Amino acid sequence: MSCAFWAKKLNPERHVGLLELNQIGYGASTKNAGFLTKGSLSYYHHLEASYGEKIAHNFFSFGHDSIQLAHDFILKDSSLEFTPTSSLTLSTHVLQHNPFFHEVDHLYSDKFSRRAHLSPGEVKINPQTFIHHLKTMCEKMGVVIHENVVVDKKNCDGLQSQIIFCLNAYTGSFLENFQTKISPYRGQMLEMQIQDGHSFDHLFYYPEERVYWRFYQDKIWIGGKRLVDEERETTMDMGINSVIQLELEDFVRTKLNLRATVTRQWSGIMGFTKNERPICQRLEQENQYLLAGFSGHGMGYGFKSAKELVEHLDDKQKEPFFFNPLRDKIES
Ligand SMILES: Cc1cc2nc3c(=O)[nH]c(=O)nc-3n(C[C@H](O)[C@H](O)[C@H](O)COP(=O)(O)OP(=O)(O)OC[C@H]3O[C@@H](n4cnc5c(N)ncnc54)[C@H](O)[C@@H]3O)c2cc1C
Q1: What digits encode the pLDDT tens for the residues 17-44?
Q2: How many Cβ atoms are within 10 Å of 324's Cβ, its own excluded?
Q3: Assuming Cys at both sites, which of 38, 71, 138, 267 could form a disulfide with 143, CB separation 3.0 to 4.6 Å?
């Protein structure tokens, strides 16, 4: 959807079509917790340990710019439900400081260490209204959207048009070469109604148990704990995993000290690459590109990634941040 948006926005004369196998919003983009985020402190510790501070900082800046773009182009002029906020990474022990994050005191619960790590400039959205709004914007600009369309790769190979495949977890079932590069991982989400009206604006991460949560009206949305039942969560089937759901429920009651009742459960399928960085590259056919494998970061990184790829189609000198050459530079 973001690629279609930028393809039309950057060149209104261009004919842009979006072909969707199901309904727009069927994928992870409406199933997530609505964090427009750069990611948790532990994610940046991992990036820094793997690639050094400069590259980690580049990722952080890229995420920041991408969220700002989404704010300026999608959120600014609309009545969408969104809240500018910060994310807080919590821990039970003192975490190593990171220059991109601010260390702050928080009054959350006695179950976590008092010092948390704050990342400002993030946004809390309702992913369903967000995607619906983006779809409407695309249609108004003249993007032609076809839903319930079965796309055949062989037919694509005969076309002259520029094609970007954005199939996320479904990439491997469409492009065989990517079966081992992008793995479908399911993520469970739980919504609970809070009885005592307790609420914070932040986006929360608790990396020790791979849990994240935020408040939505008088409810909490909480997700994660995939590794509790990793085998069953390595699937393309959207379904409820009761073991994980019970763990999330227990977390809300015992760790967050909330009296709450379950109102909704859902899941979505993420497309994970081995290093959790998206794949942005040209395919064998010169006019075909892939932008997929955003792992747990597509809402934060996706909008700018799409813009940069579309700019590259128009000017091959412009190299997207996640393009192969950069990946090679990082790996070497
Ligand atoms: C539970 C959960 C929590 C998450 N939390 C966060 C978060 O906090 N922050 C963050 O940044 N990201 C998060 N993510 C990840 C984020 O949602 C994804 O990275 C992002 O939505 C991926 O967007 P996409 O457009 O690439 O893929 P999707 O939104 O998955 O869209 C892919 C689309 O391709 C369609 N499709 C499949 N096959 C075909 C075909 N053959 N032809 C045409 N269309 C096809 C599908 O129907 C689908 O609609 C989370 C994801 C989940 C599931």
Answers
A1: 999 999 999 999 999 999 999 999 999 9
A2: 13
A3: 138
For ligand 1, whether the C-beta of 69 sits within 6 Å is no
Residue 181 phi, psi dihedral angles, 5° rounding: -95, -30
Q: What are the structure tokens assigned to 247, written together?
A: 């763990």
* Gyration radius of the chain's alpha carbons: 20
Handedness of CA 103, 104, 105, 107 (dihedral sign): negative
Consecutive sets of 10 residues in the chain, 332 residues long: mean pLDDT of each?
98 97 96 96 90 92 97 86 93 83 86 92 95 96 96 87 96 93 97 87 95 95 96 96 98 95 98 92 93 95 98 96 63 44
pLDDT the model gives residue 332:
40
Which residues are 323's β-sheet partners? Answer: 280
Pocket test residue of 1, 6, 20, 203 for ligand 1, highest count of atoms within 8 A of CB: 20
Helix (H) or strand (E) run with residue 43 in it: helix 41-51
Return the percentage of the chain with pLDDT > 90, whole number.
Answer: 80
Give the separation between CA 106 and CA 87, rounded to whole angstroms: 12
Q: Which of 22, 29, 290, 305 most suits a substitution to test ligand 1, by most atoms within 8 Å of the C-beta?
A: 29
CA of 297 to the centre of ligand 1 (A): 10
Delineate the domains of the chain, giving CATH numbers in brackets: 2-331 (3.50.50.60)
Residue nearest to atom 42 of ligand 1 (CA): 21
Q: Give me the residue label for tokens 């400081």.
A: 97
Residues making up the chain, counted from first to last: 332
Sign of the dihedral defined by the CA atoms of residues 129, 133, 136, 142, in that order: negative
